[in-house]
Amino acid sequence: MTIRVAVAGATGKMGKLAVRLIEEAPDLELHAALDSRSALDGADVALDVTHPAASGDIVRHAVEARIPVVVGTSGWSADRITGIRRLHGEVDGAQAVVFVPNFSVGSVLGTAFAALAARFFDSVEIVEAHHAGKVDSPSGTAVRTAELMAAARGLEGPVSAPHADQRARGQLVGGIPVHSLRLSGVLAEQRVVLGGDGETLTISHATLSPSSYEAGILLALRRAPELEGVTVGLETLLDLGLPSAGEA
């Protein structure tokens, strides 16, 4: 069976990459390459890789039109996703919504390892760096990592975040300080630094080429039509056994 895919944001870097992958895949077909949400209609699955300001309307339209949608646009906070969950529950026959903060399998594994380690360290900070043109901060990957680490701690409670009132200490996400860098010469990097008595553990991932996103994009597009509800994170498609924060 061929899956017809509509790509919103097809003229951007991620959009162009997705269009190429779809055209090369024997089981995928490009239904539409667009910036307008209306051309999503008739697709088997939609891919949103637009801009934070445009993404909300596209996702809402997909839900109301009962089209499965993979959301690769950054800037989706837990509150915004809660709003989509509410809408999804109000639309009879609504199809799956899959939010993917990062399509890189390596990045997803880094987040999984960080969530696993979070229970054992009371001192945690995240440093993420992206190219100078990235418009949102913290990154969706950093937000997802912090949320999963906070969920994994459970009864251990929040991490120690001294002097959190000082702006230079970073933005608190799930009680964890997140520091964002936007620099020329960088594609995407994240370091999670965990501190304990007499030791530190650093979990680091660097994206060196957009090709690192290819496997994750294809996986999400192929799985979305068979999923239900609202799903957050590529890790939910990889069966890594992470905590349930952000899942439907």
From TrEMBL:
Pathway: Amino-acid biosynthesis; L-lysine biosynthesis via DAP pathway; (S)-tetrahydrodipicolinate from L-aspartate: step 4/4. The keyword Transferase does not apply. GO terms for molecular function: 4-hydroxy-tetrahydrodipicolinate reductase; NAD binding; NADP binding; oxidoreductase activity, acting on CH or CH2 groups, NAD or NADP as acceptor. Its EC number is 1.17.1.8. Residues 108-235 form the Dihydrodipicolinate reductase C-terminal domain. The active site is at residues 130, 134. Gene3D superfamilies: Dihydrodipicolinate Reductase, domain 2 (3.30.360.10), NAD(P)-binding Rossmann-like Domain (3.40.50.720). NADP(+) binds at residue 37. It is an enzyme of class 1 (oxidoreductase). (S)-2,3,4,5-tetrahydrodipicolinate binds at residues 131, 140-141. InterPro entries: DapB_C, DapB_N, DapB_N_CS, DHDPR_bac, NAD(P)-bd_dom_sf. GO terms for biological process: diaminopimelate biosynthetic process; lysine biosynthetic process via diaminopimelate. Residues 3-103 form the Dihydrodipicolinate reductase N-terminal domain. Keywords: Amino-acid biosynthesis, Cytoplasm, Diaminopimelate biosynthesis, Lysine biosynthesis, NAD, NADP, Oxidoreductase. NAD(+) binds at residues 9-14, 72-74, 100-103. Pfam families: DapB_C (PF05173), DapB_N (PF01113). It is found in: Cytoplasm. Homotetramer. HAMAP family: DapB (MF_00102). Catalyzes the conversion of 4-hydroxy-tetrahydrodipicolinate (HTPA) to tetrahydrodipicolinate. Belongs to the DapB family. This is 4-hydroxy-tetrahydrodipicolinate reductase. It comes from Agromyces sp. G08B096.
